[in-house]
């Protein structure tokens, strides 16, 4: 039988493989908010523009008259760089991934706290149908997000709540900040939430707190924690920081 620590180590190793992958999060070189007028994108041949219907069109790619259009999950490899469409609630950008980005090549590991079962905390899940909360992204963009519910639990002897939303795949997730941020850990972290039982009982496993993509590249536009998800108590569990080699 696989034990608690073994499961955590397998998860942590998979996170490091993902983070350091050739076209993983550390490879994001730029996020380019385009307009319908063609413009150059640094490091990429051709001219790039929005199509006006959710796509991105590239022209003058080196072959006379060559044109390519990217939509949805489509990507394009030009040399070592990979181009992907990023859609933020209808606003589209062109993202460029480069495995030779210095921070990707120097990526060494993800520093993390040792796993402790004590950081698996019992909680009660309160569904909040029809409620939304304002979410501010790291670049200042604000939007309303559907609130899936609130988790009520005790942290360092104090009753607190954690607001949770759902991913596009339907999984519960939260963004939180705590007393370790800026000294021991990155400025905030993401946290997957196990699905509550039918009676609302739930477990919050802070050992699985992980770094947002913007910890690997400042070209991501991660959502920041809502006001109620900022705790003064230190949560010394989960991932701490990116480790870069020389």
Report on this model:
With 246 residues, this protein is mostly beta strands. The protein is built from 2 helices and 18 strands. The protein has a 6-stranded antiparallel beta sheet, with no helix packed on it.
Task: Supply database-style keywords.
six-stranded antiparallel sheet; 2 helices; four-stranded antiparallel sheet; 42% strand; single chain; mainly beta; 9% helix; 246 residues
Helix and strand arrangement:
Layout: H1 4-19, E1 28-33, E2 39-41, E3 44-50, E4 56-59, E5 67-70, E6 75-78, E7 81-88, E8 91-97, H2 102-106, E9 107-112, E10 120-127, E11 132-136, E12 142-146, E13 149-155, E14 158-166, E15 172-176, E16 189-193, E17 201-205, E18 239-244
Antiparallel strand pairs: 1-8, 2-3, 3-4, 4-5, 6-7, 7-8, 9-18, 10-13, 10-17, 11-12, 13-14, 14-15, 15-16
**N→C terminal distance:** 39 Å
- How are the strands of the biggest sheet laid out side by side? 16-15-14-13-10-17
Described by the principal axes of the CA atoms, the overall outline is globular
Radius of gyration: 20 Å
The residue-averaged pLDDT reads 95
Structural class: mainly beta
Indicate the proportion of strand residues.
Answer: 35-45%
Task: Output the helix-strand order.
Answer: HEEEEEEEEHEEEEEEEEEE
Low-confidence stretches: none
Major sheet: 6 strands, antiparallel
Counted beta strands: 18
Please estimate the helix content: under 10%
Number of helical regions = 2
Short account of what is shown:
This protein has 246 residues and is mainly β. The chain is built from two helices and 18 strands. Helix content is 9%, strand content 42%.
């Amino acid at each position: 039988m696989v034990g608690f620590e073994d499961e955590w180590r397998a998860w942590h190793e998979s996170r490091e493989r993902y983070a350091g992958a050739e076209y993983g999060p550390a490879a994001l070189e730029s996020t380019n908010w385009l307009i319908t007028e063609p413009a150059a994108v640094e490091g990429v041949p051709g001219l790039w523009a929005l199509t006006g219907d959710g796509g991105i069109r590239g022209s003058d790619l080196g072959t006379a008259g060559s044109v390519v259009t990217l939509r949805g999950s489509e990507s394009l490899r030009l040399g070592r760089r990979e181009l992907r469409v990023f859609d933020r609630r209808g606003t589209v950008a062109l993202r460029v991934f480069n495995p030779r980005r210095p921070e990707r090549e120097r990526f060494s590991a993800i520093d993390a706290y040792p796993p402790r079962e004590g950081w698996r905390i019992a909680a009660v899940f309160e569904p909040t149908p029809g409620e939304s909360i304002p979410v501010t992204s790291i670049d200042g963009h604000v939007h309303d997000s559907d609130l899936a519910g609130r988790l009520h639990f005790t942290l360092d002897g104090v009753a607190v709540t954690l607001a949770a939303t759902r991913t596009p795949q339907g999984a519960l997730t939260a963004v939180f900040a705590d007393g370790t941020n800026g000294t021991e850990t990155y400025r905030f972290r993401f946290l997957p939430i196990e699905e509550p039982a039918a009676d609302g009982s739930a477990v919050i496993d802070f050992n699985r707190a992980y770094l947002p993509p913007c910890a690997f590249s400042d070209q991501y536009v991660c959502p920041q924690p809502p006001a109620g998800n900022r705790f003064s108590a230190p949560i010394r569990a989960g991932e701490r920081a990116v480790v870069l080699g020389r």
